[in-house]
UniProtKB/TrEMBL annotation:
This is ATP synthase subunit b. It is found in: Cell inner membrane; Endomembrane system. Pfam families: ATP-synt_B (PF00430). GO terms for molecular function: proton-transporting ATP synthase activity, rotational mechanism; proton-transporting ATPase activity, rotational mechanism. The gene is atpF. Belongs to the ATPase B chain family. The keyword Zinc does not apply. SUPFAM superfamilies: F1F0 ATP synthase subunit B, membrane domain. Keywords: ATP synthesis, Cell inner membrane, Cell membrane, CF(0), Coiled coil, Hydrogen ion transport, Ion transport, Membrane, Transmembrane, Transmembrane helix, Transport. The keyword Endoplasmic reticulum does not apply. Gene3D superfamilies: F1F0 ATP synthase subunit B, membrane domain (1.20.5.620). It comes from Leadbetterella byssophila (strain DSM 17132 / JCM 16389 / KACC 11308 / NBRC 106382 / 4M15). F-type ATPases have 2 components, F(1) - the catalytic core - and F(0) - the membrane proton channel. F(1) has five subunits: alpha(3), beta(3), gamma(1), delta(1), epsilon(1). F(0) has three main subunits: a(1), b(2) and c(10-14). The alpha and beta chains form an alternating ring which encloses part of the gamma chain. F(1) is attached to F(0) by a central stalk formed by the gamma and epsilon chains, while a peripheral stalk is formed by the delta and b chains. The chain crosses the membrane at residues 15-35.
Amino acid sequence: MVLLNSALLNPNPGLVIWQLIVFGILVFILRKFAWTPIINGLKEREGEIEGALKMAEETRAEMAKLKADNDKLVAEARRERDEIVKEAKEAANRLIAEAKADAQTQSAKILEDARATIAHEKEVMIASVKQDVANLSIEIAEKILRKELSDKAAQQSYVSALVADAKLN
């Protein structure tokens, strides 16, 4: 170990020069063939990452715009739906009101027709009853007159009374 320590502490000047020359050649070769492509590759990768970030930002902005448009369309669809429901309710209420009015009109007409029919039938019945009463009265009077006026003298006195009564009117 002593030899190892002494070589490290006292380097040979020729060795140091050759190490510097080899190191310089290595740096030159690396610079010429490795660092330039590595740096170009890093710059290219940086550009790709920057482009991807820019595209992600544009996509995010586009998505926000699409979401806003979608929200707008949803709000408009809801408004249209509410308007359609409102119109349907109004139409239903209008139809119900029209049906009620028609039903009331028809029921009033039916009642009026029924009253007219009843009044007509009442008049017909009254006329029929009057006719029946008149016929019955005539039959009764005829029977009474036949019975009372069975003799000629009674008939003469009755006719005289009728003539006297007709002159007074």
